[in-house]
Design goal:
2 copies of one chain form a homodimer. Chain A has 6 helices and 3 strands. With 146 residues, chain A is mainly alpha-helical. In chain A, 16% of the residues are buried. The first copy, chain A, binds a DNA duplex (30 and 30 nucleotides) through helix 3 and helix 4.
Chain lengths: 146, 146
DNA sequence: ATTAATAGTTGACTTTGTCAACTATTTTAA
DNA sequence: TTAAAATAGTTGACAAAGTCAACTATTAAT
């Protein structure tokens, strides 16, 4: 395999890092860190999520997570419910307030993405999404080897 | 434009964030932060770079940058040269030591990318890189609107 | 000549993240 | 069945990363 391929791959990574950086800016200007938004995301779309789940999927430190959860609890965004089967385990979920707060963030992100995509021609939009699907499909199989 | 497009775009963003995260892990396990590696990158590939340049291109805080540069100077990775035209300005560059250090990081990253790409068929590799070029082309024009 | 702008530094601070030790509980296996 | 190992989560102490405003020095603008 050619070095040129590696170079191209890395160039794309830098390019897309800056795209993601621009999109994340909004979150960073909100009152929440990326980790906090991600936690809300997981709880909003998931079910019966525990701290351990978040630690695994986010690769976040458990001490740090514990504190973030406590903060959110104080703000009444997250509620805890101890498992009856295994009392070490605590199920986390968003309160109504928490859901509302996340929806706000999520919608702003949607709006921001829409404002980018709306400028694209039908053709370009299709090409863009097709390319994304393609990349996802090809790289998913490789993910394990990283 | 459909909500489905927005959703797909954001799904890809999350996917690619995790790819980048995996690739960046190595840097984070090195003795340098992402910001530090990025600074070395800019100095390695650029010419006549000043702190102001880095502040603009990286959107980094100037106080923070000032300290990082000082650290690197202490390690003899970066050298400063005051501009004769505008004595407020200091040109930054990597020392021989600094270049060697960056090359090490850069090579490790290359190796890591190679280990991913080598598992792909010729066809998939071509498709992957084509898709990346496509995305880059389509989104570059939109970058301003973000 | 003043005033405004720019480049970079410094101090004080906050946020974010890490590490290891700890409690409490459950699972494993002799 | 019980001792040891594993798992879930918390806490304290700390380090790294990043932010903000005030500062010096210099240059550009009116």
């Amino acid at each position: 395999m050619e070095n040129k391929s590696i170079k191209e791959f890395r160039t794309f990574n830098r390019f897309y890092t800056s795209i993601i950086g621009l999109l994340d800016e909004h979150f960073l200007n909100s009152n929440y860190s990326l980790a906090e938004v991600r936690i809300m995301f997981e709880l909003y779309y998931g079910k019966n999520i525990t701290a351990s789940d978040l630690i695994r999927t986010m690769s976040i430190d458990k001490g740090y997570l514990s504190r973030v959860i406590r903060q959110f609890e104080k703000k009444k965004f997250i509620k805890r419910e101890r498992s009856s089967e295994d009392t070490r385990v605590i199920f986390l979920s968003l309160t109504h307030e928490g859901k509302k707060e996340f929806q706000l963030l999520d919608k702003t992100q949607d709006d921001q993405v829409r404002s980018i995509l709306k400028n694209l021609s039908e053709k370009d939009l299709t090409r863009l999404l097709t390319s994304m699907t393609e990349i996802k499909k090809i790289l998913t199989q490789q993910l394990i080897s990283i």
